[in-house]
C-alpha cells in the first residue's frame, strides 16, 4: 500500500532529510522524485514519485528511477551520499528540499560565504582538538585489553580532563561533525575524530 510523503515539520529538521529533483520520463512530462531519510523512524531511504511512495531500502540504498538510480547512504551525523547515477555512468548530487537543515546550511553558504567559511573552520579546529585529546585516551583503552597488554604492554594517558570539559568537547565534536556532514566535507584525518565521538 502506497503512502504519501508527509510535510516536513520544524521539529523534524534534526532527524529528517529530504532531497528531490524532477526527472524526465519516457512518453510523459516527467515527475518530481524525492528521497526521504528519517533517522527518528528507521533510517531507511524512501523514494517518492510526485509524493507517492514507490520504493524503500535499507542503507546503503540504490533506488531505481527513470534513466538510472539514486544512490543513498548515511552515517551517524547525516547523509554521506545522495546522488543520481545515470545509465551512462554520469552522476550528480540531488539538491535538498527547502526547509531542511541541509537546505538552510546551503542557503547560508550562498548568502554569507564569509560566515559559512568561519563556521567550517571552527568545526575543523574542534575536530582536530578532539582528535589530539582523544588519541591517548583511546590508546589507554586499547592497551587495557588483556591480549593487547600482554603483547605490547599498557599505556597510561597523560591527558586527564575534568568531566565538564570532557562533556563539552564531546558535544562540540558532535556539532562539528554534523556541520561537516551538512556541507558534504570529508577528510580522512580531520573526520577520523568522528569515530571517537560515536563511541
Helix content: 25-40%
Sheet with most strands: 4 strands, antiparallel
The end-to-end span amounts to: 38 Å
| Average of per-residue pLDDT values | 79
| Low-pLDDT residue intervals, each spanning 5 or more residues | 193-199
Q: What's the shape? A: elongated
Reading the helices and strands in chain order gives EEEEEEEEHHHHH
Q: Which topology of the largest domain does CATH recognise? A: Lipocalin
Q: What is the CATH class of the largest domain?
A: Mainly Beta
- Tell me the number of structural domains: 2
Task: Kindly provide the radius of gyration, computed on alpha-carbon positions and rounded to a whole number of angstroms.
Answer: 21 Å
Instruction: List how many beta strands DSSP finds.
Output: 8
Instruction: Work out the strand percent.
Output: 25-35%
How are the strands of the biggest sheet laid out side by side?
1-2-3-4
Count of DSSP H/I helices: 5
Secondary-structure content class: alpha+beta
CATH architecture of the largest domain: Beta Barrel
Keywords: Membrane, Transmembrane, Transmembrane helix
Transmembrane segments: 114-139, 159-178
Tell me what the structure shows.
- With 199 residues, the chain is of the alpha+beta class.
- The chain has two domains: 10-97, Lipocalin; 112-197, no CATH class.
- It has five helices and eight strands, in the order E-E-E-E-E-E-E-E-H-H-H-H-H.
- It has helices at 101-111, 113-143, 146-152, 163-182, 193-197; strands at residues 16-25, 28-38, 45-49, 52-57, 61-65, 68-75, 78-86, 91-93.
- The chain has a four-stranded antiparallel sheet with strand order 1-2-3-4, with no helix packed on it. Strands 5-6-7-8 form a four-stranded antiparallel sheet.
- Strand 5 and strand 6 form a beta hairpin.
- Helix 1 crosses helix 2 (113-143) and helix 2 packs across helix 4 (163-182).
- The protein is elongated and about 70 Å long.
- Residues 193-199 have low confidence and may be disordered.
